[in-house]
Specification:
Elements lengths: L3 E7 L7 E6 L7 E10 L2 H8 L2 H6 L4 E2 L3 E9 L11 E4 L2 E2 L5 H4 L10 E2 L11 E5 L3 E3 L6 H4 L2 H11 L8 E5 L3 H12 L4 E6 L2 H9 L4 E4 L5 H7 L6 E6 L4 H10 E9 L11 H7 L2 E4 L5 H12 L8 E6 L3 H10 L4 E5 L7
Parallel strand pairs: 11-12, 11-14, 12-13, 14-15, 15-16, 17-18
Antiparallel strand pairs: 1-2, 1-4, 3-5, 3-9, 3-18, 5-6, 6-10, 7-8
Helix pairs in contact: 5-6, 5-11
The protein binds nicotinamide-adenine-dinucleotide and zinc ion (ZN).
Length: about 350
């Protein structure tokens, strides 16, 4: 095992990231060292790159970032018996306490002491990442590593989309970012009748069309009510997935739901959002906050992909990790889906 490795690091408090040599972590008791094959860039990584107010508050430099990855087990810490070196794996990015009330009842996504890989401790944009064995997820060899690289984000989409029953339901998704588009694919796969997605970005709406949505609506210039009529909706949407973090989009969703409709809220805003409570009350809407993933979502994701859910349209860019700057540029341009970084090959050319 070599002693030093390449890693994409936030070197100091401020914008940007740097490719640096850092020590390869040593797995402690109960930990596993993973050799990283592929990683994907998440919106959170972009916040950290840009050093926005959220990043300034949460990130302690110097730190290796990144939490969407797939790789293989390189080394087992003392006492780890459930895994083998060479096994294909990914990892749940939220490291939880195992002792609080939610950890005890299986809702680890609500652990009161959760720590984020690549946010609160060193992450996976490196040749190796070290995590507790309880966070290791076995990945079947049949699955394409480019797709598995963003299972973490797929997990957010799965958690949100499958919160309420979908069979035969009409679904509105606000926000055609990578997670909204993946959620659209899940809703169609899970048997929704109509899936309508909104955004203000035509590039992303076009990507959503490739994922098989019934309508992709630019609400800056199209009337959602008209689209609902064209799609045969009579009383409004049954299920809403808020994936934009935008207050106007949420209010439009509230206005477009049928009485008794159910909304899952994933989108995070950088400022407080106000909404019309009277409409929520008189319509009898259910609003469910969604954070992270459930451990069971990891199984559902593998099985959906093996069952035929094709997420390949969402990958728009692939780069070698040494070209990570190009990946962040693509993400910041708004004209991207998932950006995958390759850590397995030597840089070409
Ligand atoms: P993203 O920022 O790439 O996508 C958000 C999309 O919403 C963008 O395409 C944007 O153009 C669109 N949008 C903005 N205003 C809109 C409006 N008025 N109507 C319709 N669309 C509008 O984000 P992503 O990576 O796809 O993630 C989706 C959201 O989920 C983000 O807010 C992110 O912060 C949040 N998130 C939450 C969790 C969680 O655990 N709760 C986890 C991951 C991401
Ligand atoms: Zn806990």
């Amino acid at each position: 095992m070599k002693q030093y490795m390449d890693a994409i690091v936030k070197p100091v408090a401020g914008p940007g990231l740097e490719l640096r040599q850092v020590p390869v972590p040593t797995p402690g008791p109960g930990e596993v060292l993973i050799k990283v094959h592929k990683t994907a860039i998440c919106g959170t990584d972009v916040h950290i790159y840009n050093w926005d107010p959220w990043a300034r508050e949460h990130i302690k430099a110097p730190m290796t970032i990144g939490h969407e990855y797939v790789g293989e087990i390189a080394e087992l810490g003392a006492g780890v018996t459930s895994f083998k070196v060479g096994q294909r794996v990914s990892g749940e990015g939220h490291i939880t306490c195992h002792h609080c009330r939610n950890c005890h009842n299986g809702n680890i996504q609500w652990c009161k002491d959760t720590m984020g890989v690549g946010v609160d401790r060193d992450g996976a944009f490196a040749e190796y990442v070290c995590i507790p064995e309880t966070n290791v997820i076995t990945i079947d060899e049949s699955l394409d590593e480019d797709i598995v690289s963003f299972f973490d984000a797929f997990g957010n989409a799965t958690h949100t989309a499958l919160m309420f029953p979908l069979i035969g339901e009409d679904v509105l998704i606000t926000g055609a970012g990578p997670i909204g588009i993946i959620a659209a694919g899940i809703c169609k796969f899970a048997g929704a009748r109509r899936v309508v997605i909104t955004d203000l970005n035509d590039y992303r709406l076009e990507l959503a069309r490739k994922m098989g949505v019934d309508a992709a609506v630019n609400t800056a210039r199209e009337d959602l009510n008209e689209v609902m009529k064209q799609q045969g909706l009579i009383e409004g949407f049954d299920v809403g997935l808020e994936m934009s973090g935008n207050g106007a989009a949420l209010q439009q969703m509230i206005n477009s739901m049928r009485n008794g409709g159910k909304i899952s809220l994933l989108g995070i805003s950088n400022k407080p959002i106000s909404m019309d409570m009277n409409t929520i009350i008189t319509k009898g809407l259910t609003m469910q906050g969604i954070y992270g993933r459930k451990m069971d979502n990891w199984h559902q994701m593998s099985y959906m992909v093996q069952g035929g859910l094709d997420l390949s349209p969402i990958i728009t860019h692939r780069f070698h990790y040494t070209d990570f700057e190009k990946g962040f540029e693509a993400m910041n341009s708004g004209c991207s889906g998932k950006v995958v970084l390759d850590w397995t090959t030597k840089k070409e050319g």
